[in-house]
Amino acid sequence: MGRGTVSRALRGIFDSIFRPSRFVRVNYRALEGSVWNKFGQLIQLFGIFVANLSAYALPLTIAGFGTVPNVEQLPILASLDMSEETRFVLRFAQNSLYLTGAAGATFMAFHAGVLLTRSSRGILSSLHTVTYSTSGYLAAIFSFVVYIQTSDQLSRTADFLIWFQVAFVYRIIDMLGADLVLEGVERGGEMPSQGLSQLGQILIAGLLIACGYYVYSLYLGSRLNHNTSRITATLTVLAVLSTPIFFVIASVIAVTGFGM
Amino acid sequence: MTNNTASADDSAAPTTSKTVLYETRPSFRPAVVKLSLAVVAGASVIIYLLTYPRVLGSQQNTEIGTYVLVLVVLLLLVRYAVRIYLLKRYRYTVTEEGVRWEYSLFYKTRSRELPFTKIRGHEFRQDRIQSLFGFGTVSILSGGTNHSLGFIRFENVADPGEIQSTIRDQINN
Question: What is the pLDDT of residue A60?
Answer without folding.
Answer: 83
